[in-house]
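I hope you will forgive my troubling you with a question about protein structure. The full record is reproduced below for your convenience:

——
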Amino acid sequence: MSDVKSLWQRLLHDIQVELTEEFDRNFERKAFFDRPWRPRRSERSGRGSLLQVTGKLRRSIRPEENPSSGTITWTSSEPYADIQNNGGTITVTKAMKAHAWKEYYKLAPHIQYTRSGALSHRKQNLAIAAEAEMWKAIALMKPGSKIEIPQRQFIGDHPQLRDSIARICSDNADELANTVSEILQKHMK
């Protein structure tokens, strides 16, 4: 019986590795498989992805295996992971406005301008300026205002995941059948 349990554990491990890689690739694709993420305003000009500004969200995704139920759940330690993955509405608070001003003032001194006073078009500078403007826009909102966060799913069910799981199961099915057959033969003697 330990052989079957060992094969089951290996199957779960193979699924965990494959799906973790697929979820990570969603950040490279800037999409949930074949469904592109809605870009933020600064991305429309070809600059970075909102979910990859720092890379913290991508690095925070971890699989958690529950051996007793034979399930795997992917989680993130980042507090904004759920609203990014599912979308939703945020209500602006005074504390949020204060935080937004803090973030804005942290970024503003790093924005570079040309001698003529125009914004420098270096890629990194444009990204800093766009992020600073986002924080400023939030800071200027009235408490109680609503911010709509579009869904930018990176974890969840998808037909491509089910296909991957089916392939992994199929790859392991012959080995499992052989092991079960050997066990039955041992117990039939």
DSSP finds six helices and six strands in the chain. The two ends are 16 Å apart (CA to CA). The CA atoms of residues 120 and 135 lie 19 Å apart. The helical segments are 2-29, 56-60, 81-86, 94-107, 123-139, 159-188.
